[in-house]
Amino acid sequence: MKYSQIIIEKKEFELLRNLISTESYYKDKTYKSSLHKLKKELEDVKILPDNKMPGDVIRINSNVTIETPWNVQRTYQIVVPEQSDIRNNKISVLAPMGLALFGYAQGDEVEWEFPMGIKTIKILEVEQSNTTFKLEAL
């Protein structure tokens, strides 16, 4: 791990904490497992203000190029749930893949449980979108 711990912007951290509080309402095993793992990871994250966030850390609206265990490279944008659109390569921060990547940095390798089991994803590139995340919009 590039920065030795997950780094999350303060407003995004608050959003994730609020979403985790709804964990008991979900029945999907993979989704619940992802939220549970995220909850544990949030116990040891570094929280920074927006102006101190490293440019290569994945956050809401980041464009992320990954390599899957099957040597397939894809670029996705991590978005808030209501903007999710897999046909346009926009993945919700709450989807298993979004949760797996959030807070990690370019060059990191992430292990996460997906519907097909635990897999390792390589983060090849992270670009920040010019779109600013607004907590009030949620």
TrEMBL record:
<feature type="domain" description="Transcription elongation factor GreA/GreB C-terminal">
    <location>
        <begin position="54"/>
        <end position="128"/>
    </location>
</feature>
<dbReference type="GO" id="GO:0003677">
    <property type="term" value="F:DNA binding"/>
</dbReference>
<protein>
    <submittedName>
        <fullName>GreA/GreB family elongation factor</fullName>
    </submittedName>
</protein>
<dbReference type="GO" id="GO:0032784">
    <property type="term" value="P:regulation of DNA-templated transcription elongation"/>
</dbReference>
<keyword id="KW-0648">Protein biosynthesis</keyword>
<dbReference type="InterPro" id="IPR023459">
    <property type="entry name" value="Tscrpt_elong_fac_GreA/B_fam"/>
</dbReference>
<dbReference type="GO" id="GO:0003746">
    <property type="term" value="F:translation elongation factor activity"/>
</dbReference>
<dbReference type="InterPro" id="IPR001437">
    <property type="entry name" value="Tscrpt_elong_fac_GreA/B_C"/>
</dbReference>
<dbReference type="InterPro" id="IPR036953">
    <property type="entry name" value="GreA/GreB_C_sf"/>
</dbReference>
<dbReference type="GO" id="GO:0070063">
    <property type="term" value="F:RNA polymerase binding"/>
</dbReference>
<keyword id="KW-0251">Elongation factor</keyword>
<dbReference type="Pfam" id="PF01272">
    <property type="entry name" value="GreA_GreB"/>
</dbReference>
<dbReference type="GO" id="GO:0006354">
    <property type="term" value="P:DNA-templated transcription elongation"/>
</dbReference>
